[in-house]
Amino acid sequence: MMVNALHRAYLVSFEIPFYGVALRSLNDKTTSFYEKHGFERRTDDRHPVMILPIWTIRDLFSKP
C-alpha cells in the first residue's frame, strides 16, 4: 500500500509542486520502520511527523 501511495505521489509531482509525503507515526515501531525507508523525523513528540522528500521518491521510481 505504501509503494502505491508513493508511486502516485511520484506521478502527481510532475503536475503539482510539493515538498514530499508526510505522515504522523503512531508508535516507536512504526517510527523505526519509516526511518528505515527514508522518512525524516520532523518532530520529537509522541507521534512524530515523518516526511519523505519528493526528490527521494523520484529517485526511487526513476531508476532503470
Describe the overall structure:
With 64 residues, the chain is α+β, with helices and mostly antiparallel strands. It has one domain. The chain has helices at residues 2-12, 28-36, 54-62, and strands spanning 20-24, 40-41, 49-53. A 3-stranded antiparallel β-sheet has the order 1-3-2. The radius of gyration is 12 Å and the shape is elongated.
Task: Identify the notable features of this structure and list them briefly.
64 residues, three-stranded antiparallel beta sheet, 3 strands, 45% helix
Strands, total number: 3
- Series of secondary-structure elements, N-terminal to C-terminal: HEHEEH
Helix percentage range: 40-55%
Characterize the largest beta sheet: strand count, sense, and whether it forms a barrel: 3 strands, antiparallel
Indicate how many domains the architecture comprises.
Answer: 1
What's the rounded overall pLDDT mean? 94
Low-confidence stretches: none
Structural class: alpha+beta
Helix tally equals: 3
Cα(first) to Cα(last) distance is: 22 Å
Tell me the strand percentage band.
15-25%
The gyration radius over C-alpha positions equals: 12 Å
User: Biggest sheet, strands in spatial order?
Assistant: 1-3-2
Shape by Cα distribution: elongated
